[in-house]
Amino acid sequence: MFLLAATSASYWPFVVLAVSVAFIIIGISKLRMHAFVALILAAMLAGLLAGKDSWDIVQKDGKVKAMSSMVGVVEMVSKGLGDTARDIAVSIALAAIIGMCLMESGGADKVVRRFLAFFGEKHAGWALLWSTFILSAPIFFDTMFMLMVPLAMALRMRTGKDYTLYIMAVCCGGTVTHSMTVPHPGPVAVVDDLHLNVGESIIGGMIIGAITCVFGFFVSQWLNRRTDVPLRATGGVSLEDMKGASTKPESELPSFFWSMTPVLLPIILISLTTVFELAHKSAATGAGWGASLVSALGGESGFNGVRAWVDFIGHKNIALLIGAAIALWVLARQRGLSLKKVEDLVGPPLETAGMIILITSAGGAFGLALRSAGVGDAVQSLAQGYSLNLVLLGWVVAAVVRVAQGSATVAMLTASSIMAPMLANTPLGCHPVYLFTSIGFGAMCCSWMNDSGFWVVNRLSGMTEKETLRTWTLQLTADSVIGLLVTLVLSKLVPMV
């Protein structure tokens, strides 16, 4: 009876979703496929299972061409990959350059030292949390964790305790930012799918993410009391060598101002576009602060002229390009590098970014295939039948995909591609930024052995698999649930509609 129901028209999209996700899990974990290959094949499988006789594919010239079922699937997957790459490639590449410069110049170490000086060694956990939260805005989590682990280890050697707390504080700050802020690939794709203003997503993501981090830190403290992880040598490096970054003299580090500028300036420039957009809406009512700003800039004409420049420098790609240029200048000046040496340093992070772009774009193709198979419409019908809150539903969809296949980025891409069409027919009842954050927090849920982040933390921290499950997995799951609760509460108290 169940099989008959599952193969009916209304339930078939769920079969497509289950089969394609199962293929990804088996392909990556059992057949040892690369994530890019597994996602591309899963996208093609989902397209074939959709059972369409023909596909209408938009060509490069904008014309629509009807293609037969199997050829159409291949073209549809290629289009999904290309569309996603168009939206994320430049941002991810520039973010990789900024991250490399912060590490190589010593800028990231400078920021951490200043936070430690502000909070004091007694509150070193808070210092690691907030320095990671800010620094990881343009830096991928794996890279950020590699940077912060030596500092956490040095603190453990200095204080003789709280190693679990230090590691979890880094994980909390880094993973929340990874799921909440552009230019990380998951948030970039979700912002595009939901047609959300980039500045609004950054402001909303940082505020809700910061609140979540506060509560998440208390979880880190509880885990520290529950699981005392000893300090172990990792990767053949002695404990003395682990002190690394914390022993550099101040003379080798850039100033705090220039260390923060490549991170904060792009965020400020992107956020300015939101300020001008809100000012324009406010001025349309004929009063308020927006009208005052328009008047101060010489009226509608002057305001529009300034806004055109703000929108240009506040575009995420231009803002990050400015940040990358400053970061490269700081690196070259601080270390006295030639242009050839700077070029050599830029190569490896761009190679890493290229792989991330390919995998993320394949995830976008997989999301398009699921949409084309009717998964989004099926979920929408199910949600309407049970009157489910779309913000809660976005979290559930992202969490299920995350647990099934491991990647937070793929979970966000899949969930946003399913949820986006539902916004056209179902009132959200709050600002779309809350759906954005709920999807991001859902994609953090229950990281275990099918997640590359699990193994990065496991190997670099020196924890055993059991210790990683009892700390990292519980920390991210708690942060995911806390973030959902914060999102739901704020969506009711401050709906912004």
Describe this structure in words.
Keywords: Cell membrane, Membrane, Transmembrane, Transmembrane helix, Transport. This is GntP family gluconate:H+ symporter. InterPro entries: Glcn_transporter. One of its GO terms (molecular function) is gluconate transmembrane transporter activity. The protein has 497 residues and is mostly helical. It has one domain (2-493). Helices cover 75% and strands 2% of the residues. Strands 1-2 form a two-stranded antiparallel ribbon. Strand 1 (54-58) and strand 2 (64-68) form a beta hairpin. Helix 5 (107-119) runs antiparallel to helix 6 and helix 7 packs parallel to helix 20 (452-461). The protein is globular, with a radius of gyration of 23 Å.
Structure described in brief:
By secondary structure, the chain is mostly helical. The chain is 75% helix and 2% strand. It comes from Prosthecobacter vanneervenii.
